[in-house]
Amino acid sequence: MGIVCTVFPKLMALSALWVSTFGDCFNAIVGQTVGGPKIPWNGRKTFAGSLTMFLVSFLALWGSYKVLSLDPSWGIITGMAFTAMLLESLPLQSAYDEFTVPFSTAFLLWLVYGGSLLSPFW
After folding, report:
1. Residue pair 113/11 in contact by the 8 Å Cβ criterion
2. pTM for the full predicted model
3. Tell me, what DSSP letter sits at residue 44?
4. For the chain, which has fewer Cβ within 10 Å, the N-terminal or C-terminal residue?
5. CA 77 → CA 2, 45, 53, distances in Å?
6. What is the pLDDT of residues 42-100, one digit of tens each?
7. Hey, what's the torsion of the CAs at 46, 100, 15, 9, to 10 degrees?
8. Alpha-carbon torsion 116, 112, 74, 34, what sign?
């Protein structure tokens, strides 16, 4: 997260932080507590956990727009939440999804909106 917060503009960094922190946390809690059917490509993950990842990521992204007084783009938020959910569900070692989810969130939002990288000012 230090790299993401250093490299990307404010919206991208905050979104990546909240999606990674809240989405992954609630995903694990619900997935382990509720259980249920497993995702075919990753037997360690459940559909309930993935749905939770999507919903919490959606709320985290919406919240990051609101905190920064920006008008949310519902299509972008939905697409980003879905992408975060898919990346988190991949059969990677746990440490790797802690990198892929926040970095891809920041990077993809940056591709959509642009902005200066490594800027001395947010």
Report:
1. yes
2. 0.88
3. E
4. C
5. 23, 23, 13
6. 888 899 999 999 999 999 999 999 999 999 899 999 999 999 999 888 887 766 767 88
7. -170
8. negative
Q: Token pair of 120, please?
A: 């001395």
Tell which residue, 57, 66, 42, 71, has the closest CA to residue 104: 57
Query: For residues 19 and 105, is the Cβ–Cβ distance under 8 A?
Result: yes
Collapsing DSSP to helix, strand or coil, 43 comes out as: strand
Based on its alpha-carbon atoms, the radius of gyration of the chain, rounded to whole angstroms, reads 14
Contact 108, 80 (CB under 8 A): yes
The alpha carbon torsion through 105, 111, 115, 120 (nearest 10 deg) reads 50
Number of neighbouring beta carbons within 10 Å of residue 47: 16
Rounding to the nearest 10 degrees, give the CA dihedral for residues 60, 62, 65, 68: -60
